[in-house]
Amino acid sequence: MQRVIVGGISGCGKTTLARALSRRLDLPYVEFDALFHGPGWTQRPSFVADVETFIAGERWVTDSDGYARFIGPRVLQRADTLVWLDYERPVVMRRVIRRTIRRVVLRERLFNGNRERLRAALTDPEHPVRWAWSQHGRRRRERAELNADRQLAHLTVIRLRRPRDTAQWLAGLAPIGR
Fold first, then answer.
1. Residues in a beta bridge with 157
2. What is the 3-state secondary structure (H, E, C) of the chain?
3. How many Å apart are CA 64 and CA 85, to the nearest integer?
4. How crowded is residue 60: how many other Cβ atoms within 10 Å of its Cβ?
5. pTM
6. What residues form DSSP beta bridges with 84?
7. How far is CA 30 from CA 5, 64, 128, in A?
8. Rounded to 5°, angle at Cα 85 from 84 and 88
9. List of domains in the chain
10. Average pLDDT over residues 33-62
11. Fewer C-beta within 10 Å: the chain N or C terminus?
12. What is the pLDDT of residues 139-157, one digit of tens each?
């Protein structure tokens, strides 16, 4: 595992796992949401160039199998491992709702000064809570189809279906330098 994507639907725990893998395997890490979102939740003009620069490296981990409509299959083609967090909808919804509530209540600053707003969670179809609910089944089907794509046969796909499986898998990885 030298170039790793942690994928799954919004709120499933991609960022948390990618950060843990970064520490465990001593891999450079970048959060694609931070590269993508500029002020006011707009796309940063340098997003594609920033992704290209990052994935040109020989070793890395990122927390997104999304953004394909902006960058195509480049990241998947460059990766050697995809860790797919394929959790059931109730697990995902608990996580994404809890995260949104925490961010709203604590007024956490996110990417480039942005903040989540409760109103957006209720009205914006692109908000992670609404996105996770409406896209869960579709994204799951698309991921399964993509995993069968022969052009991506070079990828080792690790499909984790429960948080407990993820914790056990991560605990079983030998840390770098030991």
1. 82
2. CCEEEEEECCCCCHHHHHHHHHHHHCCCEECHHHHHECHHHCECCCHHHHHHHHHCCCCEEECCCCCHHHHCCHHHHHCCEEEEECCCHHHHHHHHHHHHHHHHHHCCCCHHHCCCCHHHHHHCCCCHHHHHHHHHHHHHHHHHHHHCCHHHCCCEEEEECCHHHHHHHHHCCCCCCC
3. 11
4. 21
5. 0.92
6. 7, 159
7. 10, 9, 19
8. 135
9. 3-170 (3.40.50.300)
10. 95
11. C
12. 988 888 877 776 778 899 9
pLDDT tens per residue, range 100-145: 999 999 999 999 899 999 899 889 998 999 999 999 999 988 888 8
Q: Cα–Cα distance between 118 and 104 in angstroms, integer?
A: 6
Strand-pairing partners, residue 5, are 62, 82
Residue with tokens 């020989």: 58
Provide the β-strand partners of residue 160: 85
8 Å CB contact between 117 and 104: yes
